[in-house]
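Repro:
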Amino acid sequence: MESSQPPARSMESAALVLGTAAHGREGGNESPSDSVCAAGVEPHHGLVMAAQRGDQKAFTALVEFYQQTVFGYLRARLFDSTDAEDLCQETFLRCYQGREKLSRATQVGPWLIGIARNLLREHVKRITRRREVAWTELCLELDQMVQERVESSSDVLQGLPICMESLGPSARQAIDLRYRAQLKMAEIANTLRRSEGAVRLLVHRARLALKQCLDNRLKGSE
């Protein structure tokens, strides 16, 4: 997979969206975003509420703060970085369009990830060639397992590489061939020199093992 750092195009696109959709303050009046959103500091309630009212500077500050989290979430679940860029832009566009839902109690990070997750599901439905989205479908399935338990914007799939390493060699290879190389079950069976039925069972058990591993890691971090 490529870097999870958001490309410059994502911010430029977000700026274009804001430029055409938002009507922020102009002319030198200080915005709540002027003194907030320092590196590593969660946006405070004043900034969130300013964004809710349509303050362009405040909303741009939110985009700058959360873009890496949102892009990283999408990039981990998509093979094509361009798709990740497009869905990242769409996430912030929908956030802006639905900004009236923001309140002082809103956890902005989890809300944005929820929007991104829904966009991924829509993306999967649009693709008719199922092999192209097999990895995305697996990631969404793993997300669904812990969705109700994870309240922060931290990405549950951060532990996936470690969980992949915990699989046996055959199971790990089967997952790689199925979801990363996007091979058909018959092709995997030929590669592993097993029957197609045995490969299906191997992949099924490997998926269950990954879910269990991720679940155990979450329990250990609570």
